[in-house]
Amino acid sequence: MQQASSLFTRIEYRLARQLFHTRWLPRSPRTQRLTLHLFQRCADAGHPAALSLYGHMLFHRAVSPQDKARGARYVLEAAQSGDRHAQYQAGQIYEHGCAQYPRRDDRAVTWYARAGEAGHPLAAERLARAYRNGELGLPEDPERTGHWQALAESLDSGEAGTRH
Questions:
Q1: Among 20, 43, 132, 162, which residue has the least CB neighbours within 10 Å?
Q2: Which backbone phi and psi does 23 adopt, to 5 degrees?
């Protein structure tokens, strides 16, 4: 039954993504509620991409602090499962802080490094800037700046259009 549940979750996620990205479909409140409901069901079932995307949406667009905290929790769960977009978002969460997750430069650096090494160009760019300017509790380091900048440039040239 677990496999059937997993298959159903993948189908629901695919439907939610399609509803989310379909431009010809009217953006009625009903369609939006259905799309968010499907994303939430998939995230609650532990679907890594749904955790990342729905968590990102909740964290950045939710009105209530509880929904923002739930979004951050989803993002961090996806980050721990290896989703590079969620790892970058986890770095953002810890860099800027929020009610449930206070600012922690050391954790921000860890998540940015994981995301950069996994192929997220914005994470590599952020670390290059941090080493260049001595931000996030890091010392100014031209060698590490060069490393992260070169990685960001190589990733950026091969990854146009796949960011969130």
A1: 162
A2: -80, -30
